[in-house]
Design goal:
two-stranded antiparallel ribbon; alpha/beta; single chain; Rossmann fold; globular; five-stranded parallel beta sheet
């Protein structure tokens, strides 16, 4: 009888609400960033119209893995570092300043930002036009280094780096106890060769443009370390650029085969990147 009463007591304890579930490992999770953070599958969008925020983006896949107590996705296409603290007009709506979602007890923040400060569409536009005139050469590299200075590298170091650094410092101030994860950009181009016109750049410009995105990725990770954030190096994962076949590639070419925008991640990428972030959180 004593054994039976002990068992019944234990069963009663496990039935109490306070013992039903363990506390979540992650409290409030806030996702921040630009289109690389927002997109995934444009057939499954939600939130601010014009942000192209997908339920299959990195943050949503990560939230499904971590089961945070609260999840707020502020990511938005075309966002710049300024839109962390300034509202962004998009399409038919306005995305609030992304840092508005941060509160002092925020537990986790993911961030991908910086590419729109460089204005990659305008930057790469001349490269596509010049490729027609010299498809096997490096007309884009010559254009941006004509005065003996690499103007893209200069802008990355002297304009973009300080902006990313300032964003991360303020993020740390607003969420002092949060684990911050900075996710750099996946490589859009292979190390060698090209796949013109799917990737509309001259053969000799591919290494230069890849290196330029690589510099941006390095800056993102370097500045992350300065504030004690976790860096996830997606750029360093080879074999998933837009020149790879469907299924292998993470970045879609000029004419996408997946439901995402050209030169942006597909949902295969976002799911894989979410797994990388989860692994990084487990090991830090």
């Amino acid at each position: 009888m004593r054994k039976l009463s002990t068992v019944l007591a234990l069963l009663a304890m496990t039935a109490l609400p306070g013992h039903a579930h363990a506390a979540p490992a992650v409290g409030r999770y806030v996702a921040l960033g630009d289109s690389y953070a927002a997109v995934g599958d444009l057939l499954d969008q939600y939130g601010t119209p014009g942000c192209f925020r997908s339920r299959k983006n990195v943050a949503n896949f990560l939230a499904a893995e971590l089961h945070p107590a609260e999840f707020v996705d502020m990511s938005c296409g075309d966002a710049t570092t300024a839109n962390m603290t300034v509202p962004q007009a998009v399409g038919l709506g306005v995305n609030p300043a992304q840092f508005d979602a941060l509160i002092p007890d925020t537990d986790l923040v993911t961030l991908s930002i910086g590419g729109n400060d460089l204005n990659l569409p305008a930057t790469l536009g001349p490269c596509g036009v010049l490729a027609v005139t010299d498809p096997d050469g490096n007309p884009c590299q010559r254009f941006y280094t004509a005065d003996g200075v690499d103007r893209l590298a200069d802008r990355l170091e002297n304009e973009i780096r300080p902006r990313i650094a300032a964003v991360l410092r303020e993020l740390r101030d607003r969420a002092p106890h949060a684990r911050i994860v900075v996710i750099d950009y996946a490589s859009p181009l292979p190390e060698w060769g090209n796949c013109y016109p799917a990737a509309p750049f001259a053969r000799g410009d591919v290494p230069y443009l890849r290196a330029t995105v690589g510099r941006l990725a390095a800056i993102q990770l370097e500045e992350a370390r300065r504030v004690g954030a976790i860096g996830v190096d997606v750029f360093g994962v080879p074999g998933h650029d837009m020149c790879q076949p469907v299924g292998a590639r993470w970045i879609e070419p000029l004419v996408p085969a997946a439901a995402t925008t050209p030169f942006h991640p597909n949902s295969t990428a976002t799911a894989a990147i979410a797994r990388m972030v989860a692994a990084a959180l487990d090991s830090n």
